[in-house]
Amino acid sequence: MGINRRDWLRQSLLASATMLVAGPHAAQGCASERSKELREKDDLILLNWNENPYGPSDVAVQAVNDAMKYANRYPDEVVNELKQKLADKNGLKPANFLLTAGSTEVLSLLGQHVGLQKGEIVSPYPTFPTALRFGERAGASIKRVGLDTDDRIDLDKVLDAISDKTKMVFICNPNNPTGTELLTEDLRSFCRRVPENVLIAMDEAYVEYSNAGLKGSMISLVNELPNLIIVRTFSKTYGLAGLRMGYAVSNVRNIQALRDRHLGSEIAAGWPPLVAASASLDDPEFINMCVAKNAEGKQIVYDAYDRWGVKYNPSSTNFIYARDDRFEKDLVAKMKKKGILITKWPDMTQHVRVSIGKPEHMRLFVETVEEFLV
Ligand SMILES: Cc1ncc(COP(=O)(O)O)c(C=O)c1O
User: Fold this and answer.
1) What is the distance in A from the centroid of ligand 1 to the CA of 48?
2) Closest ligand 1 atom number to CA of residue 241
3) pLDDT tens digits, residue range 40-66?
4) Are residues 255 and 301 in the same domain?
5) Phi/psi of residue 171, nearest 5 degrees
6) Which of 57, 82, 154, 195 has the fewest CB atoms within 10 Å, i.e. is most exposed?
7) Centroid of ligand 1 to alpha carbon of 289 (angstroms)
8) pLDDT over threshold 50, residue 3
9) Does some domain include residue 18?
10) Cα 371 to Cα 326: distance, rounded to the nearest angstrom
11) To the nearest whole number, what is the mean pLDDT of the chain?
């Protein structure tokens, strides 16, 4: 993919320093505020960052506890074990994987890669902004492509937007914040039509929650398409958001190029996230339970929204994106006063996004939000 080494280190250091000081969510201006609230008040209902209310699985917790006795040793073995498991699950080789501290790291590396070339990123919008933000900071221009009338990514429009300057297209499927999902066949044919000199960054953070499930993953194209990079996380269905483990999947050359520019290395995450992720892969029942309970939680909100005539997108994720015409102004602030945190997405001021917690949280969300109907 011709990643350009020029200035990479300087830019990476700058960006990493920002991450260290602020954390990835601080870019959205709310990290320290929320951490403070978390520490102060255990009974806040957190429906704002699409976390998994059930995670981590018991086997992950056990693995972390057991691993503490090895904390004096470097965790190379478990890096290899985790990559081998991921490879076996996906019919690939360990060398097709790069492990990172959450998928945020992969997204920032990819954004910087384009920025350093002063290239262009084409992206549907609104979408998850990390790759675009890091790209812009490093010098990329961003071409934002609007969604269709059902808040779905318009793949033809994205293809049309690709120009000589385009170095990367960013696709988040299912998409955050809209919760919509593309048909697997449409996405596959899109990937095959993107010119080979343009990287495809495919963010699959919510794939396990989607209708297509893992069958909808574009990982199956990694051996076929040299420009495809899949971005995955253990933060969502695996419930490990606070332990930080994500990964990139691509051909060996791209993975090597990313590894060359990744500050630290795959052992940087340390034992706890590595063993937790590895153990979680052996616990598919936990994932099935989380997906089923998530569907139950979503239904509670759908039923209420249908009763009230609130327009929403049927969600392929663990959050629901709805128009807020039926709600009082400042709904997010009003809900916060009641101890329930939800989100308004920057640039999408007419919508609210609610993450799916346990059914009892969603019933409380419904009861509380009903007070603010107009
Ligand atoms: C689409 C998407 N990608 C990536 C991330 C980053 O997740 P993490 O860095 O925890 O893997 C998120 C987090 O909310 C997300 O919604």
Assistant:
1) 13
2) 10
3) 456 799 999 999 999 899 999 999 999
4) no
5) -130, 130
6) 195
7) 21
8) no
9) no
10) 11
11) 90
Question: In this structure, what token pair is assigned to residue 90?
Answer: 């996906």
Give dist(CA 213, CA 25) in Å, integer.
Answer: 27
Residues 105 and 156 in one domain: yes
Q: From the CA of 309, how far away is ligand 1's center (Å)?
A: 30
Residue with tokens 């794939």: 207
Give the tens place of pLDDT for each residue, 98-152: 999 999 999 999 999 999 999 999 999 999 999 999 999 999 999 999 999 999 9
Host domain of residue 84: 56-281
* Domain of residue 149, CATH code: 3.40.640.10
Which 8-state DSSP code applies to residue 195? -
Burial of 309 (0-12, 13-18, 19+ CB in 10 A): exposed
255's tokens: 């993975």
Instruction: Find the helix packing angle between 130-138 and 103-116, rounded to 10°.
Output: 30
Q: What is the per-residue pLDDT for 33? A: 60
What is the DSSP pairing of strand 199-203 with strand 340-341?
unpaired
CA end-to-end distance (rounded Å), the chain: 53
